[in-house]
Amino acid sequence: MANRLQNEKSPYLLQHKDNPVDWYPWSAEAFEAAGLEDKPVFLSIGYSTCHWCHVMAHESFEDTEIAELLKDFICIKVDREERPDIDAVYMDVCQALTGSGGWPLTILMTPEQKPFFAGTYFPKKGRRGQPGLTEVLKQAKYLWDHDRERLIDAGNQITEELLKNRKCDSIDPEKSMLSESYEFLRKNFDPDFGGFGGAPKFPTPHNLLFLLRYYRCENEPNALRMVEKTLDAMARGGIFDHIGGGFSRYSTDDKWLIPHFEKMLYDNALLIPAYLEAYQITKKECYAEVARRTGDYILRELTDPEGGFYCGQDADSDGEEGKYYTFTPNEIESVLGQEKGAEFCRLYGITDRGNFEGKSIPNRIGQKAEGWRMGAPEFEMLYEYRKQRFALHKDDKILLSWNAWTIIALAQAGSILQDDRYFSAAMSAQRFIEESMTDEHNRPFHRFRDGEAAHAGQLDDYAVYALALLELYRTTLDVNYLKQAILRAGQMTDLFEDEANGGYFLGARDAERLIARPKELYDGAVPSGNSVAAVVLGRIASLTGDMLWQERSDRQLRFISGQVREYPAGYTFSMLAVADSLYPHRELVCAGKNPPEELKEYLRNNPADDISVIFKSEENGSLLAEIAPFTLNYPLPVQAVLYYLCENGTCRAPVDDFVKLPL
Description:
Elements: H1 11-14, E1 23-25, H2 28-37, E2 41-46, H3 51-61, H4 64-69, E3 74-79, H5 84-98, E4 105-109, E5 115-119, H6 133-146, H7 148-162, H8 175-188, H9 205-218, H10 221-236, E6 250-251, E7 259-260, E8 263-264, H11 265-282, H12 285-301, E9 312-313, E10 316-317, E11 320-321, H13 329-336, H14 338-347, H15 377-389, E12 394-395, E13 398-399, H16 400-416, H17 420-436, E14 445-449, E15 452-456, H18 459-476, H19 479-496, H20 529-544, H21 547-564, H22 572-582, E16 586-592, H23 597-605, E17 611-616, H24 621-627, E18 641-647, E19 650-651
Parallel strand pairs: 1-3, 2-3, 16-17
Antiparallel strand pairs: 2-4, 4-5, 6-7, 8-9, 9-12, 10-11, 13-14, 14-15, 16-18, 18-19
């Protein structure tokens, strides 16, 4: 018999709808029941493509013995991707109490939402020194019945610690923050296989984007070498899907061979700009090809017919981790024939011995010979065979901030690779957000699935969407995207800024009140909303010339600088905003009938972070004057175009030929 989760839209919650556990979704009803029934709350947080969430579900939540023990608790399931605010609060608790975190996240708390116990995965029974869920639940029940004050005191102390005002000094950004970030990455760089630190290895694309910026700002060739080594190694490893394109979540070994096989939208969306910028700088076609194959993976596997992008695909297939992605030589030869099959096995490391549980993950590690080029028909044959062999669960939620990262990636791919498919997908997703994920007050929702938009947009949604709109403006020079970016950034400031202590909260001022109001700055799997906000505010200030936006940008930069000065390498996306503010910057106004091809070509071929480009025409002049009033004084030429270039507060005489610009 299905439980209360049967009416939810989250794929993760629906995975648990037939559990014998009497799950509630996060709701006032659940906490009212806890109070009325005088029971503690068992909170379990995870997501649908999480391998260890599946393991714990199978071991414990599908188990009648555990379900019987959980009758002494009010049990709540939360999808961390749907409710990152709840996840952020209780992940802070877990990290504070245990020194680590992850998913599934397991919390015990009072009916007032005050936590007194935290952990991650628990087996059903204790083993090798790790307590089992059975023992945890029995002990918690005993203490609730016989020593409740101890639990309540613990919950009060933990909550009080969460609510402490950790105000830091606001300081001006300094170049030393950038050099310290670079030095930290340099010291932790793996010279053999790229990446930073040991296994498990995460791609962390914002580290690579920071190093590319540092290379250009400081002319530091080693920064570029670290990026190239990492991009090359990842593209050769098993973390990259050589058959279907796209990257897995992370590698469990040093050399990127054995991935944790789940594929997430945000990883792929962030890796595309890293490969594209490396392609712009080095002109190496291999980087363009990886970006294309990753973009094609998103278009083929993760794109909804209505225009949005799905969250990701599971690590498990047919009940086994990675089974979908591994092969034997006989399988390959049965699909491609003996000659082509043997060639693929030789080029992509498919052996009788295998490299993962007796089978082989395709990879190019250590290969000297050229691999097959994108478009080889054999890839398509293997792709179709793989799809028919096993099925992968797909999390078909559409999350605003992850979709915004994907819009950025595909807009850049459309421009740099000159492929209209990517542009079309980016613009379609943007229209989908405006038409299907926006409420009657023109405020965006966080999630869309199965015809329903739900959950108020959070900081990351507003910040990354504003950045995506700025990217669409940069790649199309359509002023309507700039107007919309300014609207979303204005909402972000009004709804999320902490005017007393600086920075931006994760939840809006009128959002559901939790026991704490988190303010995230660390750049983890994805850049934080505060880091993205800093970039957005600075770029809008440059484009509009408006002192209001400059003041907002300065406030955020000073807040960030005060917070990160002891460990700036943990905030590499914030460091992009710092670089924007400290290195020479140019403003270019191009006036004419249409954006000239020379300008578009320059933006395609160069990482143009150090230049803000405005295009003014007779058609957009009045709207542009509202957005960037300074443009009102720039006359339109009678013929052709005029370029007006300013740098660091000094403007040059206008020129009518792009080649005359000192770019």
